[in-house]
Specification:
This protein has 14 helices and 23 strands. The chain has 520 residues and is an alpha/beta fold.
Length: 520
């Protein structure tokens, strides 16, 4: 069986010893093997720092943007191949696979454009300069410069292309080399992307390295100029933050973790209205896209109590049309979850949520196009709670699958915001309303607990991809349970990979460093 090698120190390195088998989650057919036993992780990081780092820092922002554009073009040229791998190894429908691959190239393109706009400079000025003395000659300026370490990216299983690209695009534009470690179970797409980039010699040596298999002692070799960006469970994020080398060297750590995202339907929205249909469409998409395996998926459906039954019935009717099965089959609209462990966790999570309410829809039909008893299938599941019910599990446990819970509320902005806040921090929550006063009050209640708040209304229905789509120009991350991190956001994302330093001295000298032109 083919073995997926790591690409470190500018070369492919095959694993030794124990290997993990990657499978098709719809059929459980073995595909390839991967591991990283025998890979010198300390040497991999050192090579990235000493070879990839200087090569990137020697380039201007515009030149780094051109590199990122080349990465985007290389992935785009193999789009159909990568979609096929995502269907086979990720359990993705073709639409889900396109969402991942196209999300990757869209983000890369956005950061390539940003690099072009920053121009032929290697120093980024932060804000206006300040006069420090009695004349303008004694001057102060804040600037951003690349850190001299390596960016370690530990990605989740659900978006092997987008997860790799969104982190790497920002780091590379900031001037920092990357060692990326995809989740092993779905790593076929990420591995092929790096393979394509190596074949086409798109990036300087050491700018992007790939570690297959487990992280091993990777994070034991971090230094004071390094950063770590992790997407995954809150428990693992806590473990990373507590590692002795991370603490000793004050290593920057960005964590994107659990999120009990909510969608609030305003009391002003009438059944059948455009905003009402927009709401149902977004809920349905988030429950079933990627089999609900999105960190931004809607988990809690907040509905004014008088409308709860009608929203429930409308969602049940729509969920009943979802064909579950092997995504390689024509007509299948939702594939399996990614792994046997995910399948077990989702099943257990459904049982836990159902104890807080009532199971109102659960797909039990045989999956289409898969062998009997094979595949990690979970049909879409809808649960509802009673108005005013405490429902502690609904507000504390994220079930990472096609599962959501209807939570009736009393129709007030205060009650809606308070219920959502019980999730203790999220990536994104939404309010669907045409009432500006209600929307404003809810937004101010949600904002301290989220990295992003989506305002759904008929005015944007035709243009919006919905709250579940992460946009490169807006921040992605959230406080509390969501990990306390922040990624993307256009220029804002570069800050994680750079050092802001205050320059204090002669204005002409500082302007020479920054490339600014003197104002007199």
């Amino acid at each position: 069986m083919r073995k997926l090698a790591s690409h470190v120190e500018g070369r492919w390195v095959e694993a030794e010893g124990r290997l993990e088998t990657l499978v098709n989650p719809a059929t459980e057919e073995s595909l390839v093997e991967a591991g990283a036993d025998g890979v010198d992780r300390a040497a991999a990081l050192a090579f990235a720092r000493t070879t990839g780092g200087p090569a990137l820092r020697a380039l201007t922002y515009a030149q780094r943007g051109e590199l990122i554009r080349s990465v985007c073009d290389a992935i785009q040229s193999h789009r159909d191949e990568l979609i096929g791998l995502a269907i086979a190894n990720g359990g993705n429908t073709r639409g889900d696979a396109k969402f991942d691959i196209d999300g990757a190239t869209f983000t890369l393109s956005a950061y390539a454009d940003l690099g072009k706009s920053l121009g032929d400079t290697r120093v980024r000025v932060d804000g206006d300069g300040v006069q420090l003395g009695r004349t303008s000659r004694f001057h102060g300026e804040h600037v951003w410069v690349p850190r001299h370490g390596v960016a370690i990216h530990v990605n989740a299983f659900n978006f092997p292309a987008w997860g790799l690209a969104e982190k790497a695009a920002v780091a590379l534009l900031a001037g920092m080399p990357v060692v990326t470690k995809p989740a092993t179970s779905s790593a076929l797409v990420a591995h092929r992307i790096v393979e394509i980039l190596v074949e086409k010699q798109v990036l300087p040596a050491g700018a992007l390295s790939l570690l297959m298999g487990g992280a091993g002692d990777l994070l034991q070799h971090v230094g004071p100029q390094d950063v770590v960006a992790f997407t995954g469970s809150g428990a693992t994020g806590e473990l990373i933050r507590g590692l002795a080398p991370v603490i000793r060297h004050s290593v920057r750590v960005n964590v994107e973790a659990d999120s009990l995202n909510a969608a609030i339907l305003g009391p002003d929205v009438e059944e059948g209205a455009e905003t009402y249909e927009f709401y149902l469409k977004d809920v349905l998409r988030d429950m079933t896209q990627k089999a609900g395996q999105k960190c931004t998926a809607i988990r809690r459906i907040l509905v004014p109590a008088p409308l709860a039954d009608r929203v429930r019935d409308a969602l049940v009717d729509r969920l009943a049309t979802i064909v579950v099965g092997n995504p390689a089959q024509e007509g299948v609209r939702m594939g399996p979850v990614a792994t046997a462990q995910q399948h077990k966790d989702v099943r257990e999570g459904i049982d836990a949520l159902a104890r807080d309410g009532r199971l109102v829809f659960g797909q039990t039909a045989k999956p289409v196009g898969s062998p009997d008893g094979k595949g990690y299938f979970v049909g879409p599941v809808l649960i509802e709670t009673e108005p005013g019910a405490d429902a502690p599990t609904v507000h504390s446990r994220e079930v990472f699958g096609p599962v959501a819970t209807i939570v009736p509320y009393d129709g007030t902005a205060a009650n809606a915001a308070a219920l959502v806040a019980r999730g203790e921090g999220g990536l994104v929550s939404s309010v669907y309303s045409e009432d500006v006063a209600f929307t404003s009050e809810v937004v101010l209640g949600l904002a301290p607990f989220h990295g992003r708040v989506f305002l759904g209304s008929a005015k944007i229905a035709e243009q919006s991809p919905g709250p579940g789509t992460v946009l490169p120009t807006l921040v992605h991350g959230g406080p509390g349970r969501a990990g306390g991190g922040e990624e993307l956001g256009g220029l804002r994302g570069l800050a994680f990979y750079q050092q802001r330093v205050a320059l204090e001295g002669s204005r002409p000298v500082i302007e020479r460093i920054t490339g600014a032109k003197s104002q007199g």
